[in-house]
Amino acid sequence: MATLISVPPVSTAAAWRGDRLAETGEWIYRLSDAQVAELEQLGTRFVAERPDLRTVRREEYPLVACAEAVEEWRQDVDFGRGFVLARGLRTHLYSDALSAAIYYILGLHMGDPIRQNEMGDLIDHVYATSNKTMADPTALSSKVRDQLVYHSDSSDIVALMCLRPARAGGASCLVSGAEIYNEILRRRPDLAPLLLEPFHWDWKRQDHNAPANTYMSPIISMVDGVFSMYAGSLYILTAQEYPGVPKLSEDQIEVLRLFDEITYEPGMAIEMDFRPGDIQWLSNYAALHARTSFTDWPEPQRSRHLLRLWLSSRTGRPVVPGFGKNGVVQVRSAPRDGKAEHPDAHFDIYSISVPRLLS
């Protein structure tokens, strides 16, 4: 049994139930006409200037009408409920390149983009390129139509922009990590301390080009009174398949089972259907995210297509060393260990219109 002292219950705005939050609509920010006009103007200039995504700075595309909105989003994401949905962009009138330019500009003001894989992509596609299911170990979660289980991504902030929604399904689902933890404390306080101990996580399944099979991180961090969570039992369980990874104890298996059981209980999560132009900003430390399965339109040009950014936040949120994938992610300005840039990586805004097709 673990000897660690358990973290006390979380009472901040980050501890919420989806059924109650869904009734308020307070998590939706509607852009004004002036804000939309500013973003369209800046995005048009961004497309014309075609800057290198690795080096472009937010100061080159300053916000005025949207400045207060971005600060409000940052506060909500980093210190509030953990997410916000920005709505109102007229993407039905834009090229995909213009939509991506607006998105990247806002991302620069929300944080600093980081590389999402060993290829070095700074903007990634969430776009089904195969009929694989997540039961297939070669499947990539961003490239299939299958349901995705609750998990955390590999950055401080993960952002999704909807270019085109699915024909049916594909709802984004969020659940409060703090509320899950509070429930574990209520039911099994003896198991809660295990969440502060490091687990092995399957790195290869998240990125087939990863330089190692696994990395290590606890599920919970508590530093200076700031609660953070990094979760997703799937990758802890699949990491058990690699040689040299210590086998989970019965108590560890039990706390993971309880964690998942609570996560999927009715009322815990909030679901939202993305509309074209919606941007979801989410703290990976505050909420886990999932997605329902979806059906695409028969025409490829109408297929569900989201853009994804991973951002390093400038708020200096305190977490334990190596928490999540902070110890292994790459900054945007240079590849890992000086390796050559991958020729297909997304460093130019025009490349977002051409998703790579996978088997």
Indicate the topology.
Layout: H1 18-21, E1 28-30, H2 33-49, H3 67-79, E2 83-87, H4 96-110, E3 112-115, E4 124-126, E5 148-151, E6 157-164, E7 168-169, E8 172-176, H5 177-187, E9 199-202, E10 214-217, E11 220-223, E12 226-229, H6 233-239, H7 250-263, E13 269-272, E14 279-283, E15 287-291, E16 294-295, E17 305-312, E18 330-331
Parallel strand pairs: 1-2
Antiparallel strand pairs: 2-14, 3-17, 3-18, 4-17, 5-15, 6-14, 6-17, 7-16, 8-13, 8-15, 9-10, 11-12
Helix pairs in contact: 2-4, 5-7
What fraction of the residues are assigned to beta strands by DSSP? 15-25%
Radius of gyration: 20 Å
* N to C succession of SSEs: HEHHEHEEEEEEHEEEEHHEEEEEE
Biggest sheet features? 8 strands, mixed
Give the beta-strand count: 18
User: Portion of residues in helices?
Assistant: 10-25%
Mean pLDDT comes to 89
For the termini, the CA-CA separation is: 45 Å
Keywords:
alpha+beta; 18 strands; 7 helices; disordered C terminus; eight-stranded mixed beta sheet; 359 residues
